[in-house]
Design brief:
The complex is a heterodimer of chains A (91) and B (472). Chain A is an alpha+beta fold and 91 residues long. Chain A has a domain of 60 residues: Alpha-Beta Plaits (2-Layer Sandwich), CATH 3.30.70. Chain A is built from 2 helices and 4 strands; from the N terminus they run βαββαβ. Chain A starts with a strand and ends in a 30-residue tail after the last strand. The relative contact order of chain A is 0.22. By secondary structure, chain B is an alpha/beta fold. A 6-stranded mixed β-sheet of chain B has the order 3-2-1-7-21-20, covered by helices on one side. In chain B, strands 24-25-28-27-26-29 form a 6-stranded antiparallel β-sheet. The longest helix of chain B has 15 residues. Classes of the chains: A alpha+beta (91), B alpha/beta (472). At the A-B interface, β1, β3 and β4 of A face β3, α9, β24 and β25 of B. The complex binds flavin-adenine dinucleotide. Chain A: GO terms for molecular function: electron transfer activity; iron ion binding; iron-sulfur cluster binding. Chain A: This is Ferredoxin. Chain A: Pfam families: Fer4_15.
């Protein structure tokens, strides 16, 4: 699972740090530090943290990894963890 | 197949054709490029989408590189950006764009291939400004920090326990690197040309607080001093740095944090208004050509863009901020596939954060425009405060040290051009906050390193004027 926190939006409510302490921690009074990659065993914890964030600052993606390019048949080094051939509107 | 030029071509159905099966090419596959691609799909674009990026990795997040990655709590290759949705794109990663033919609407790739487009988004960002002496920059032990690979290399050297780290430049990047070094227990010297760290971005009053913060954490901070030379040993390893005050430092690791250079070289001679200061665009993210005319099929977003902002006197802002890249990408993508009347201006209020020495520093607005500063809440001595910047009698920016909850209030003050000094009777003011003081920015005519916000009027004097044939 990949995640990113919009730290402009983050207000340091620390809900995430309570709900998923292995992934989110507060450093000092209000600086949030997090692991941008969490393994699957943390899925539930992290999902709870995402839901609990009062400012909706956490973006988590659950899209599959290690799949071929978004669009099949196009050469030149697609992302190793890119997404499957997905038409617009999918996902 | 391809949309007509001009106004999105609404009326004759060409915009509908573009949205259905047009070709959109995005150059620069990082934060702005990815968020734009997602927004295009969200907006119903079903045509072909190509992302061209010279880095081999899929889009990843950079802010952790100077923080968690240097500390060793996150691996450099583990900051891949989450996706908001699948985008069904052709990815051309590890491939640089080397040229643009505006008339023929083609992007040239390294290797000679050309990629045609109906709409183009330029999101090529910036790169670290290298140490100006190439032979010294090549010494083993001299680093810059912009990419995941830079961060991985630097992390390895920090973990190996250097005798002393020299950080050249006390802007946000340099300060965060110094903070990580201290947290790792490494001796670190910061050399800053200005009178204090962060002075270019936040002014001298706040810079003084940053200086005390660094010293309290054991940084050997040298201000109003420049590094004049880096010296290697016979094997080409860095061993010493020479400073403008005549002293020398024994160091085996130096990080050059002197700001950034915009990635616009690939646009040289294209006829676009692109140069060392970025690619100029209108508030709707449409690029200007060298004549100062706005294009209608070439858009710009992120660190490489310069955009006029109505709230800040229509000055062209170059914002090297994460939040700007996201917001501008969304506006650019929306406008790329929308008819004229539905287009939106990029009216985002500049905002950024930086975490250093355990303090959460955040800002909104454009502090560098500030003439005066009022400490409206908290106190400088406690390093927990809200500083409000005033410009011509209105609130123009705010900065917080560990007081993020105040920032939203001042963002609204900025949006509504609220009077400065702000009246806020419900809150007790500390002695710091009784009257405004000069914000104390360095004289802009003197060189400083890498403020994160730079203001400039639009003048293409730094560019060669090249007339491209009229397009039809
Ligand atoms: C170490 C670090 C820490 C940061 N910390 C913060 C922070 O705490 N807060 C904050 O607000 N911001 C921070 N930032 C800034 C933030 O990361 C940037 O604003 C953001 O990355 C901008 O995104 P972008 O997509 O516009 O540009 P970039 O991320 O620079 O991406 C541009 C991409 O285009 C590629 N490219 C360039 N030229 C070409 C070409 N000719 N052809 C193909 N591809 C090309 C580049 O290689 C790159 O992959 C930090 C940046 C760094 C480096």
């Amino acid at each position: 699972m990949r995640l990113v926190v919009d730290l402009n939006r983050c207000q340091g409510y620390a809900q995430c740090a309570f709900l998923a302490p292995d992934v989110f921690t507060l450093h000092g009074h209000e600086a949030l530090r997090y692991t941008p990659y969490a393994d699957d065993s943390r899925r539930e914890q992290v999902a709870r943290a995402v839901a609990a964030c009062p400012v909706g600052a956490i973006l988590l993606d659950d899209l599959p990894e290690n799949l071929p390019d978004d669009v099949a048949g196009d050469g030149a080094g697609g992302p190793a963890d890119g997404l499957h051939a997905a038409g617009p509107g999918v996902g | 197949m391809s949309a007509e030029r001009g106004g999105g071509g609404e009326g004759d159905g060409s915009l509908e054709r573009l949205r259905r099966d047009g070709r959109i090419v995005i150059v620069g596959a990082s934060l702005a490029g990815l968020r734009a691609a997602e927004t295009l799909r969200e907006q119903g674009f079903t045509g072909s989408l190509t992302l061209i990026g010279d880095e081999p990795e899929p889009p990843y997040d950079r802010p952790p590189l100077s923080k968690q990655v240097l500390l060793g709590t996150v691996d450099a290759d583990r900051t891949t950006l989450p996706r908001r949705r699948a985008i069904g794109a052709r990815w051309r990663l590890g491939t640089a764009a080397t040229g643009l033919d505006l008339a023929a609407r083609r992007v040239r790739l390294a290797g000679g291939e050309e990629v045609p487009y109906d709409r183009l988004l330029i999101a090529t960002g910036v790169r670290a400004r290298p140490w100006p002496h190439p032979a010294e920059a090549d010494l083993d032990g001299v680093f810059t920090l912009r990419t995941g690979r830079d961060a991985a290399r630097l992390r390895r050297r920090l973990a190996a326990g250097p005798r002393r780290v020299l950080v050249i430049g006390g802007g946000f990047m340099g300060s965060e690197i110094a903070s990580a070094c201290r947290e790792l227990g490494l001796p670190v010297t910061v050399v800053e040309r200005g009178p204090a760290p962060l002075v270019g971005a936040l002014g001298g009053v706040i810079g003084q607080v940053a200086a005390e913060l660094q010293r309290a954490h054991g940084v050997d901070l040298r201000c109003s001093v420049m590094v004049t030379g880096l010296e290697g040993d016979a094997a080409g390893r860095l061993r010493r740095a020479h400073l403008s005050d005549g002293t020398a430092l024994e160091v085996d690791l130096a990080v050059v944090a002197l700001g950034a250079v915009r990635n616009t070289e690939w646009l040289a001679g294209s006829g676009l208004g692109a140069g060392p200061r970025g690619v100029a665009c209108d508030a709707g993210c449409r690029a200007f050509d060298v004549r100062g005319l706005v294009t209608d099929d070439v858009f710009v977003a992120g660190d490489v863009a310069r955009t006029p902002h109505p709230l800040f006197g229509y000055q062209f802002l170059s914002l090297e901020h994460w939040g700007n890249a996201v917001a501008q990408a969304e506006v650019a993508a929306h406008n790329m596939v929308s008819p004229g009347p539905d287009r939106r201006p990029h009216l985002w209020i500049p905002a950024f954060w930086s975490a250093q020495f355990g303090v959460n520093i955040k800002s909104v607005g454009v502090p560098t425009m500030g003439e005066e500063l009022l400490i409206a809440q908290g106190s400088l001595a406690e390093r927990s405060f809200t500083g409000v910047y005033g410009y011509q009698g209105r609130v123009i920016a705010a900065v917080t040290f560990d007081q993020t909850n105040w920032l939203d209030f001042y963002r609204r003050q900025i949006e509504t051009a609220a009077p400065f000094p702000p009246v806020c009777r419900t809150v007790d003011r500390r002695p710091d906050g009784l009257r405004p003081v000069p914000a104390d920015f360095p004289d802009p005519s003197l060189p400083t390193h890498g403020p994160t916000v730079t203001l400039s009027g639009y003048s293409p004097t730094d560019r060669r004027i090249v007339f491209t044939p009229a397009r039809g």
